[in-house]
Amino acid sequence: MDLLLSGGHFYEGARWHDGHFWVSDLYAGHVLKITPGGHAQVAVELDDQPSGLGWLPDGTLLVVGMKSRSVWKCPAGEPPRLHADITALTGGFTNDMIVDRHGRAYVSNLGFDLFTGAPPATTTLVRVDPDGQSTIVADGLQFPNGLVISPDGNSLIVAETFGGRLSAFTIEDDGSLSGQRCWAQIGREPSWETPHSLLDTDFAPDGCAIDEEGCVWVADALNGRVARVAEGGEIRQQIKAPDGFGLYSCALGGPDGRTLILCTAPDFDDVKRKATREARLYSTKI
Predict the structure, then answer these.
(1) To bridge 109 with a disulfide, which of 57, 90, 102, 185 should be the other Cys (CB 3.0-4.6 Å)?
(2) The CATH fold of domain 2-285
């Protein structure tokens, strides 16, 4: 793989849009727009911890603010403005996001404060409509994280990090979700008795991307790898991060649609990541 960009705190929310890769740097408080050749510019500065990214049909960027538990509308050349505050609908920091072709944003949240050792709790998935109205569309999820929509636009797939699985829902015409099902059980489901017990899994699904064949490329937050997973759980390909690095998010794009970028860092310890700039983006052809 090739080094695309270095010097970040912690890269997350990777996406491909309008000829560029995009990532949030959580602890720098900004969103980066990156050419396929690795030239980066700050596209958005947010007085928050940015994470999930998506775009409305008119091209307006939406950014998840983790600490404010909000979604921000970020028109080019203008300051961010609040699109939706979903604090009342979430159990913890908001996290990743996927926006469908109608401009409906589906937003995950952590459910509890993992970093302070709070008791584990399941949580919700929230839909934010183009007018900012917000609704809980799923509940009882085990640390919902990365989100993708199937190539036909009919299914939403969510990575349940501490469930060891990818779960799928049917997207109804009104944006509601139905038919929850296990799309792929790829890791051992931990016990959820204590914060430490959540780590008792062999695959912790994190940020993800989907290819034209409907396979999901999903980062394993505990084992420094990304895997290409088919429905049912077959792992068809794996790519390891460089030694000493974890791998937390990925995006598939590039001019030919076959470049995979990988968000890596030494770990996900928030104190260490805030203090240093060791995160790296890698790219590889698939």
Answers:
(1) 90
(2) Neuraminidase (2.120.10)
